[in-house]
Design brief:
This is Probable cytosol aminopeptidase. The chain is of the alpha/beta class. It contains 14 helices and 20 strands. The radius of gyration is 24 Å and the shape is elongated.
Length: 514
């Protein structure tokens, strides 16, 4: 991953492939942002005019390249748009810095070193710029040959042979400032694990089976001193995990339930994160139509986010206990697959009539939620690419939040917005519960078609232990980006919800969970 350093050096004397500066959208044209004063001076104070001549406006995501002035040791200046200029006495928002740094880092693929002369008002800005660089420079190229002819599937070069930016120097960041160093260390830990989650989402399902995912979790547990328990199909059958077994029964790749635990000696709170880990979703007997299968390797994004969040909490040494539950299965059609009309007995003892085998995520989550509830954590948050209905409601960049406690739902929403993950609070209308009544079982896995994302949330609520605060994040939209890269978000797996979960763990450690 890209290396990050802090430096108080002046931009002109720094040896690098490029100097990155910020430009904002002002009332009368582009405005050079703080941090680029030395660059502006080298252009005789006319840098904004030069950029405007080149067509720059300062709009978010805009990128303009121009030759560096005489005397600079870097040959190139890259001006990246920050969006609207903040008002008087206001700083640039963290997300604007994060996105700008990400745009520049993507454009710098192939470069060895770049200096980021973006506005640094405080440690939070250092962390935001660092995150933008590390997330924007991400590239998944494990399966690309790039013409090398090696056939190993282990090539680390980016597309067209351009490696990700090797080093980013954050100008204005103080190497001896404890807060600045801590912010950069936090950004590094969060982004390394978030990028690992992206790798998992992008890995083809023939390589990332439930057993393979569990093995990766075991390796991370050993590396970071975490406790881990893996239940295979035999253990799941012995303990009565009917939901996970039912979903995974149609595949030759048998299911797993992984419990990953981080504990801290000074912790007095316990969070449980539960992730949907369908390593491939064909829809089962209720087979998905053509055109809806190609990206279904991403249906384990919730489990990837939970895995990354637990490891990050350990790396940051947060004084809070965090348990991650990864409900892993492959949903395939075969003679042993669960059928529409079958009834499953869940781990909770409740029976579920399966009306649609493509509504499988809620079945594996239900078992994991009940298992998590048995430990009586202070709060449970589940994360899942659960419903297309949530995508219809909120689009491809925003995830929905449902909860059994309004205050907790607000806390989760605020945490998501704080770290730059667009989210929106959604209701759990009681009248929709009746649609899941079954004449055969305690509940059906489907209800009314309209409001399907909310119906799924109501189904999950049935499997949360009494008196336990719970929230459900439906990340079906933002988990996998099928369009072009933007900001610090790549095409493919995004690592959605990782930063929200980490922030919730930090808030809990600080006593501010709400």
């Amino acid at each position: 991953m890209t290396a990050l350093t802090l430096s108080t050096s002046a931009a002109p004397g720094l040896r690098a492939d490029a100097i990155v500066i910020g430009v904002a959208k002002g009332a009368k044209g582009p405005v050079v942002a703080p941090g680029a004063e030395a660059v502006d001076t080298a252009y005789d104070g006319r840098l904004a005019a030069v950029l405007e001549t080149l067509g720059a406006s300062g709009a978010e995501g805009e990128l303009t390249k121009l030759p560096a002035p005489d005397g600079f040791k870097a040959p190139l200046v890259i001006a990246v748009g920050l969006g609207a200029e903040p008002g008087r006495d206001a700083d640039y928002e963290a997300e604007a810095l994060r996105r700008a740094a990400g745009v520049a880092a993507r454009a710098l693929a192939g470069a060895k070193k770049a200096a980021f002369a973006l506005p640094v008002e405080d440690a939070a800005a250092v962390g935001a710029i660092g995150e933008g660089v590390l997330l924007g420079a991400y590239s998944f190229d494990t399966y690309k040959d790039n013409g090398a002819g090696s056939g190993t599937g282990k090539n680390t070069k980016a597309k067209n042979g351009r490696t990700p930016l090797a080093e980013g120097v954050l100008l204005g960041g103080k190497p001896r400032d404890a807060a600045h160093k801590a912010a950069l260390a936090r950004a590094t830990a969060v982004c390394e694990e978030l990028n690992r989650a992206r790798d998992l989402v992008n890995t083809p399902p023939n390589d990332l089976t439930p057993a393979a995912f569990a093995a990766i979790a075991q390796g991370a547990a050993k590396e970071h001193g975490l406790k881990i328990q893996v239940l295979d199909d035999k253990a799941l059958a012995k303990d009565g995990y009917g939901g996970i077994l039912g979903v995974g029964g149609g595949s030759a790749a048998t299911p797993r339930l992984v419990k990953l635990s981080y504990t801290h000696a000074d912790a007095d709170k316990h969070l449980a994160f539960v992730g949907k880990g369908i390593t491939y979703d064909s829809g089962g007997i209720s087979l998905k139509p053509a055109g809806h299968n190609e990206t279904m390797k991403c249906d384990m994004s919730g489990a990837a986010a939970v895995f990354a969040a637990v490891v990050t909490a350990a790396r940051l040494g947060l004084p809070v206990n965090v348990t991650g539950w990864l409900a892993l299965a492959e949903n395939m059609p075969s003679g042993s697959a669960v059928r529409p009309g079958d009834v499953l007995r869940m781990y909770s003892g409740k029976t579920v009539e399966v009306l649609n085998t493509d509504a499988e995520g809620r079945l594996v989550l239900a078992d994991a939620l009940w298992a998590a509830s048995a430990e009586q954590p202070d709060a449970i948050v589940d994360v899942a690419t659960l419903t297309g209905a949530m995508m219809l409601a909120l689009g491809s960049r925003t995830f929905g939040i449902m909860a059994n406690d309004d205050a907790f739902r607000s806390t989760v929403h605020e945490a998501a917005e704080e770290v730059g993950e667009p989210a929106w609070p959604m209701p759990l209308p009681e009248h929709l519960r009746k649609g899941m009544d079954s004449p055969t079982a305690d509940i059906a896995n489907m209800g009314e078609r309209m409001g399907g994302g909310l119906v799924a949330g109501l189904f999950l609520r049935e499997f949360v232990g009494e008196g336990i605060t719970w929230a459900h994040l439906d990340i079906a939209g933002p988990a996998f980006n099928e369009g072009g890269a933007f900001g610090y978000t790549p095409k493919g797996g995004t690592g959605s919800a990782v930063r929200t979960l980490v922030r919730l763990a930090e808030l809990t450690a600080e006593g501010d969970l709400g």
